[in-house]
Amino acid sequence: MFDKYEITIKPYTVFLLILMKNRHTFTNKWVFILAIVVIIIPIIPYYCTFSIKSNQTSNWPNFSNQTSDWSNFATFFAAFISLANLFVFIYFSELIYKYNLKRDELIEEKEKQIEALEKPILAFNQTQESIYEVTNIGRGAALNVKVFVNQKVENDNGEYQCWGYRCYSMYVHQTLLLKNTSNCIEIGAKYTDIFGNEFNSYMKDYSLKIFDLRLGLPSISLLADPEPTLHPL
Question: Residue 42: exposed, middle, or buried by beta-carbon count in 10 A (0-12, 13-18, 19+)?
Fold first, then answer.
């Protein structure tokens, strides 16, 4: 019983495996086969019904020499030609749609790669004089740069004041010295890339964080509106 069952199912299983492996090839072939069948099959009953009867013995079929007969055949056959064209049109429309979809995905992926390469990253560093400096360590220019500082006031009241610098733009690897920042407890920056995407940099306790505002706004009061007084750098 096991041998009989194995022999019965094996050809069907092999056929399914071949069909799944070559499903795209089968689809391509069957579309054109279907179109050809739609064109050829109507010819057989039409010829059997309307062919000319002749007593002459010949291996060649007998065709009408009347123009009206050929006009009627063309009218009859045109509907099946249109149907075959419809199958081929649907097939190529699907191919074009898939091609355009794939092309759009590649273009979108390429744009993301370009954006990643052109992304600016502003980092902060403290010099030997305890003054902070900002450097563009990314691979793209930083535009509309605003640096914000939360600084301790030099008195015994433990007061702090927020202010900042407007740097406008920073090219790759450019470093700017931020004067009068020796007593700051936190420092941050707002800036955009050449595509207008907004980014934030924030450092506190020597820990630097980079925020892409397309992923959400950071909950940091120093970078929140309203902005403090900004001075040109």
Answer: middle
Calculate helix-pair angle for 43-50, 67-117, nearest 10 degrees. 170
* One domain, residues 170 and 226: yes
The reported pLDDT for the residue numbered 10 is 46
> Mean of the pLDDT values across residues 190-194?
93
Residue 34 is part of which domain span? 2-50+68-116
pLDDT at 53 over 80: no
Q: Mean pLDDT across the chain, nearest whole number?
A: 79
Residue 142: strand, helix, or coil? strand
Same domain, 81 and 138: no
Report how far residue 145's alpha carbon sits from residue 171's, in angstroms, rounded to the nearest whole number.
Answer: 11
Q: Is there a single domain that holds both residue 173 and residue 218?
A: yes
3-state secondary structure of 57: coil
Task: Quote the number of domains for the chain.
Answer: 2
Q: For the chain, what percentages of helix, strand and coil (3-state, to nearest 5) are there?
A: 45, 25, 30
Name the band, by pLDDT with cuts 50, 70 and 90, for residue 129.
confident
pLDDT digits (tens, 9 = 90+) for 148-178: 999 877 665 667 788 899 988 999 999 999 9
Q: How large is the greatest C-alpha to C-alpha distance in the chain, in angstroms?
A: 127
The DSSP bridge pattern shows strands 230-232 and 160-170 to be parallel
Phi and psi at 149, nearest 5°, equal -130, 135
